[in-house]
Amino acid sequence: MKQYLLSPGPTAVPERVLLRMAAPMIHHRTPQFSAIFAETRTMLQTIHKTQSDVLMLSSSGSGAMEAAVMALCAPGETMIFVNGGKFGERWGDIAKKHGVNSVEIKVAWGNAVAIKDVQAALDAHPHAKAVFVQASDTSTTTEHPIKEIAALTKNLDCLTVIDAITALGVIDMPMDAWGLDVVISGSQKALMLPPGLATIAISEKAWAMIETTDGCSSFYFDLLTERKNQKAGKDTTAWTPAVSLIIGLNEVLKMMLEEGLDELYARHTLLAKATRAGFDALGMRLVSTAPATSATGAFVPESVDGGAFVKYLRDTMGVTFAGGQDDLTGKIIRVAHLGYYDVFDVCTIMSAVEIALNRFGYPVKMGAGVGAAQAVLAERFPKA
Q1: Which residue among 7, 34, 182, 366 is least enclosed by CB atoms within 10 Å?
Q2: Among 278, 299, 277, residue whose Cα is nearest residue 288
Q3: Contact predicate 237/58, CB 8 Å
């Protein structure tokens, strides 16, 4: 049985990238690797639309999230974070672990944070070091208004820190133009790689704060040490890098730039629009009122056990989606359309959902979701 990986991470890796990563291993302290590293760093700046440093860390995205909190906030200092899902909640968990006072902006799952609530938190806590927020929270498939949040902190002694793990390479989020101070990503999403590599882009404003913060001590996640090693001329990492993943990232970024950034974002927007149209045609309500461009969550019919539904799709049909978490466990499915995805992957998603609903005894009109998605997806191709 052919397997289809259609979850919001990890995502499929392009054959071109797999072949590049399958080349013989090279040593990481050599001019050959440094040349690849330097080229990759420059392309990362292009993708982020920034002149600032972008670091590569051998960790998951959560490692970069923790590194950011430790570098910016000393024990006893205050940070503000948006909790609108499992990954927003993680900011608070990290802060608690390191003795940082965290001010939570609680948002109902499936809703984007209100700018007035961020402003109220900033007014109430003028000494907060940063606002930490997801560009899109994968657990609820919701996008947050990061451009507007950054505008609130731009002229304050406060930063905007973005978890863009399921947003970088999906939506246009120009770091310098919007005033984003820290942008974090992970390899297993739109960067189309296996898990294990994180990136963290840091503005000059943020570097100035890092240099003067008596932050939580870290040996491995010392961003100042990494910056000294990863800068142009040294072109390496402080500790042993994920060599194969960085080589793979080099190929991924070339693919993105060959496609063109405007085209890249337009493709993701179209796939998201088509997926939402398909679920709407099937009568499956979306989880989010501010749906993400990277992934879509939809409620399964009440007569269907969502947990069993996801398991059936994976183990019987060979199609891997994701289910819900916490209060959404057994109630929703989450499907991706980021990275190495195109038109016919969305058709597969909708077709698999229809067949599975039929097998669970739900009265679905076969082809309804696929047809609604196709009507949108046709825009991808010019008329003959």
Answers
A1: 366
A2: 299
A3: yes
